[in-house]
Amino acid sequence: MGCQLASSALVNLLLKPVFGRVRPDPAGVAAPRALPRPPRGHSFPSGHAASAAAFAVGAAAESPALGAALVPLALGVGYSRVHVGAHRPSDVIAGLAVGSTLALAARRRRSAVLAGAERNPHPT
């Protein structure tokens, strides 16, 4: 869950303002697929894709079986953002990369902390 929060903050508070990419024109989306209220604000990278990837990859690091179920769902979240016209494919790919990277970095950090605790169980 912490990775989701971190990915959302990184994407929405730092990366989107830095890149400032305008969202796709909602007029180009067929009526049945279009969102009733198209999102406003910048589009790169996708925050939905980043959060979905952070959760799925973080869960997969703990339980590969759970990850096998969640990773396709995260990819589905990314696809849906393109399908409804909220993002371009590159927005979603970048969001998936950000979320996955944060989850893997958190896992690596957690492993290092646990390994340090095992080497020195009683710090002075």
Task: Write up this protein.
The chain has 124 residues and is an all-alpha fold. The mean pLDDT is 84. It has helices at 2-19, 47-62, 64-83, 89-119. It has four helices and no strands. It is elongated and about 60 Å long. The longest helix has 31 residues, at 89-119.
Structural class: mainly alpha
Compute the average pLDDT: 84
Count of extended strands: 0
Q: What Rg, in angstroms, do the CA atoms define?
A: 17 Å
Dominant shape: elongated
Helix content class: 55-70%
Contiguous runs where pLDDT drops below 50 for at least 5 residues: none
Number of helices: 4
N- and C-termini, Cα separation: 32 Å
Estimate what percentage of residues fall within beta strands: under 5%
Q: What letter string, H or E per element, gives the SSE order?
A: HHHH
Let me know the largest β-sheet. Answer: none
